[in-house]
Amino acid sequence: MSEPVALKLTAKDFKSDQEVRWCPGCGDYAILAAVQQFMPELNIPRERIVFVSGIGCSSRFPYYMNTYGMHSIHGRAPAIATGLSVSRPDLSVWVVTGDGDALSIGGNHLIHALRRNVNLKILLFNNRIYGLTKGQYSPTSEVGKITKSTPAGSADAPFNPLSLALGAEASFVGRTIDSDRKHLQSVLRAAAEHQGSAFVEIYQNCNIFNDGAFDQLKEPGTRDDFLIRLEHGQPITFGAEGRFCVVHPPGGFGLEVRETASVRPEEIVVHDATVADPAYAFALSRLPGLDLSNTPIGVFRSVDRPSYDSVVQGQVEAAKAGVTETPEQQLAGLLGSGDTWTIL
Amino acid sequence: MTKQIRQLDRVVIRFAGDSGDGMQLTGDRFTSETAQLGNDISTLPNFPAEIRAPAGTLPGVSSFQVHFADYDILTPGDAPNVLVAMNPAALKANLADLPRGADIIVNTDEFTKRNLAKVGYQTSPLDDDSLAGYVVHPVALTSMTVRALADQEVSKKDAERAKNMFALGLLSWMYSRPYSSTLRFLERKFAKRPALVAANVAAFRAGWNFGETTDSFSVRYEVKPAKMVPGTYRNITGNAALSLGLVAAGVRSGLPVFLGAYPITPASDILHELSKHKRFGVITMQAEDEIAAVGAALGASYGGSLGVTTTSGPGVALKSETISLAVALELPLVIVDVQRAGPSTGMPTKTEQADLNMALHGRHGEAPVAVIAPKSPSDCFHAAIEAARIALTYRTPVILLSDNYVANGSEPWLLPDVESLPDLRVEFATAPNGDNGTFLPYLRDPQTLARPWAIPGTPGLEHRIGGLEKADKTGDISYDPANHDFMVRTRAARIETIPVPDVEVEDPDGNARMLVLGWGSTYGPIGAACRRLRQRGFSVAQAHLRHLAPMPANLGEVLRSYDRVVIPEMNLGQLAHVIRGKYLVDAIGYNQVRGLPFTATELETMLEEVLKNV
């Protein structure tokens, strides 16, 4: 392989000629702009990038990217993208999905893509509401949520998308926020570098049906005390001047938040996304409270595991190795295998 | 003693036993030996959905029927001349199908009080006169096998299990079959356990020798080779032929085959078979569900593979939304439906043709696809290639309607010359096709109405496709009323105008006033019934549809040139309904849904009735 040539692409190269049709003020605009600005960093020719989506507001995303793209059907993007990725290992395949698309109608495909570790970058825009169908509760809506379909409040307990992904054996799990472009791009960067499935939850504001769902994580007055910014190799502290920290209490199963002043420095957990046991990342995913206090963002988990694509392609390559016949000769041999007889 | 040798032109044998008795394998081996001899063959396996139903019960009976002859035959035979019954349940379950005078070989060791009681026999049918009309050969199969293997280093259980090889040896002797292929098979099958090879070979020989020495069998039979087209043959099931057809389609198109599948009876064997052919670049993915299976296949097609999904009726129902997406995306996709008796789980191991309506109409919106059906086990090979040809050339989903009868039945297959198979090469789009270097993903080929297949990785052709309605040519999202009307009609026209071969009519004397029209797996029984009627002096025409959508251009003319059109189907009249609606022809349906193929006899009787009234 020759050295990669700098392609010198810009954000503009990734904008398609289609008019963007999300509601004014939608968080999807910020994500789109961040992704378009990030894409040139990949240094992958546009024709080798494919965005596959399902149904929902977020799933219009591929129309606005000047790459190859498919806007498919509700919930099925991970399945379709799996077939594409496995059969075309030369492509960079991205899945854009939402909380209803990925976790409700498409939940089965999501968990199986993650368990197989298909080489997909899955971006889940979580706005905790159904937007395109005009405001029903979603599988990430909080219990008791009053919506058009739940006038007396939702009776369903929500999914925690990261816990779910980790339970499904995801090898890469991260979370970021639509409004924090720098952080969003840092997580995309890590996801893109990962071999195998990378699952990124992006908190995204639906200003029409669920406005302000993540305000605590965005407002300058609250965000520093609510957000835990995970950085690999760094002790986990947050809040003004590192007022709070994360510890692993002896005898407990999970992680807890303490006042930094109340613990010895060596008790503070040093973040390591490469820990083999998913229990650590799972414990991180369980930190947030119902009010979004103690919400970690960043890369929770990034471990090496053979991708489904590479194993499948490896089996094909191994089977082909040493074959000297033409495909037609091979076929003639195959058709005539087993017990044959000849009539003269 | 010297045995009498009698010549026969045809024989139907049914091997029947408990699900665990190895009847499918025994039948399969006998078939292979018979094929080696050069007889024409047709087989019918019949087994329960339960893997091991309670031993010795009626629901646990598994059987394998083989029909072989010194001339070309079309069906596995209506009624067995010989029944091998490994236990009382097998006797009871199959006796009603036997004509008087048939030979019955029973394993007397299994006719114990307990086993008889299990199936409701008060007294042993071997001891009373209930089998008086038959030629019964009581054989202590199990105990003779165990005795024959006394010197072998195998457990008593393994020795007992070899009783099917004893039975096979006996039948092979009785019908003068060459058995070297069976010995080779046993060596392959038990390659890792030489003791089992020796035991099974010994059991086979013991059965053979028993036939030669016992007084119970005084006659040995011969069936001479059939006159068949010269060439090299192998015996093949429909599922195996279909798998090889898909591999061949990959070779002849130069595209990798991608199979997405979820295990389902009776289609799983295609997944098993294709998973062995990775050296052809075939990728098989056992998906998490039916929907993912077709989704992955469609994703692979989008990337430039020949995407295939294989399933049965319940799976097609689940895939329906994705098939409609493929209609909108206008990408190649082959959907194989090995039909079984429905609705719902129905009778998973029994045959039926009741998914025709679903294949033709079972999608939301106006979502036409091409539909084709193989007529026999070996025809599945060519039907698979034809399905791939239409999918690739016209960029459309194609539903291939096989069924359990052709999928698991077998017949001799004249191996085709690879170079004579259709050339399926396609050209991907490589350059812009619009003004100023733009790419129009929905600009159609005027001949085929197919849109360009521009696969990811092609520079300059980056474009977006999706399930939303697309504007003609540009493929941009469009809600324009006139555009939608145009696109719906265009999608219909692109299926309707696919050129398919004219339907051929078999009417040897040219005097027929009645046409029998069939589709799919009923070809054999209909053909056999027509032959019998012609032998008796009647004039009957037969036509068989391979292409159900679009239908052959000459079909209307053919239908209208007969006074009577009869359509036998293993459903309640689905093709007849289409024919009546489309061609305004007063077709008569003949329908049964018993989970079994038609017998030639019942069709002969029915057609004779119709003929009387023409």
TrEMBL record, chain A:
<dbReference type="InterPro" id="IPR051457">
    <property type="entry name" value="2-oxoacid:Fd_oxidoreductase"/>
</dbReference>
<protein>
    <submittedName>
        <fullName>2-oxoacid:ferredoxin oxidoreductase subunit beta</fullName>
    </submittedName>
</protein>
<dbReference type="GO" id="GO:0045333">
    <property type="term" value="P:cellular respiration"/>
</dbReference>
<dbReference type="GO" id="GO:0030976">
    <property type="term" value="F:thiamine pyrophosphate binding"/>
</dbReference>
<dbReference type="InterPro" id="IPR029061">
    <property type="entry name" value="THDP-binding"/>
</dbReference>
<dbReference type="GO" id="GO:0016625">
    <property type="term" value="F:oxidoreductase activity, acting on the aldehyde or oxo group of donors, iron-sulfur protein as acceptor"/>
</dbReference>
<dbReference type="InterPro" id="IPR011766">
    <property type="entry name" value="TPP_enzyme_TPP-bd"/>
</dbReference>
<keyword id="KW-0560">Oxidoreductase</keyword>
<feature type="domain" description="Thiamine pyrophosphate enzyme TPP-binding">
    <location>
        <begin position="55"/>
        <end position="202"/>
    </location>
</feature>
<dbReference type="Pfam" id="PF02775">
    <property type="entry name" value="TPP_enzyme_C"/>
</dbReference>
<dbReference type="GO" id="GO:0000287">
    <property type="term" value="F:magnesium ion binding"/>
</dbReference>
UniProtKB/TrEMBL annotation, chain B:
<dbReference type="GO" id="GO:0000287">
    <property type="term" value="F:magnesium ion binding"/>
</dbReference>
<dbReference type="InterPro" id="IPR009014">
    <property type="entry name" value="Transketo_C/PFOR_II"/>
</dbReference>
<dbReference type="InterPro" id="IPR050722">
    <property type="entry name" value="Pyruvate:ferred/Flavod_OxRd"/>
</dbReference>
<dbReference type="GO" id="GO:0006979">
    <property type="term" value="P:response to oxidative stress"/>
</dbReference>
<dbReference type="InterPro" id="IPR002869">
    <property type="entry name" value="Pyrv_flavodox_OxRed_cen"/>
</dbReference>
<keyword id="KW-0560">Oxidoreductase</keyword>
<dbReference type="InterPro" id="IPR022367">
    <property type="entry name" value="2-oxoacid/accept_OxRdtase_asu"/>
</dbReference>
<dbReference type="Pfam" id="PF01855">
    <property type="entry name" value="POR_N"/>
</dbReference>
<protein>
    <submittedName>
        <fullName>2-oxoacid:acceptor oxidoreductase subunit alpha</fullName>
    </submittedName>
</protein>
<dbReference type="InterPro" id="IPR029061">
    <property type="entry name" value="THDP-binding"/>
</dbReference>
<dbReference type="Pfam" id="PF01558">
    <property type="entry name" value="POR"/>
</dbReference>
<dbReference type="InterPro" id="IPR002880">
    <property type="entry name" value="Pyrv_Fd/Flavodoxin_OxRdtase_N"/>
</dbReference>
<feature type="domain" description="Pyruvate/ketoisovalerate oxidoreductase catalytic">
    <location>
        <begin position="20"/>
        <end position="207"/>
    </location>
</feature>
<dbReference type="InterPro" id="IPR019752">
    <property type="entry name" value="Pyrv/ketoisovalerate_OxRed_cat"/>
</dbReference>
<feature type="domain" description="Pyruvate flavodoxin/ferredoxin oxidoreductase pyrimidine binding">
    <location>
        <begin position="255"/>
        <end position="474"/>
    </location>
</feature>
<dbReference type="GO" id="GO:0016903">
    <property type="term" value="F:oxidoreductase activity, acting on the aldehyde or oxo group of donors"/>
</dbReference>
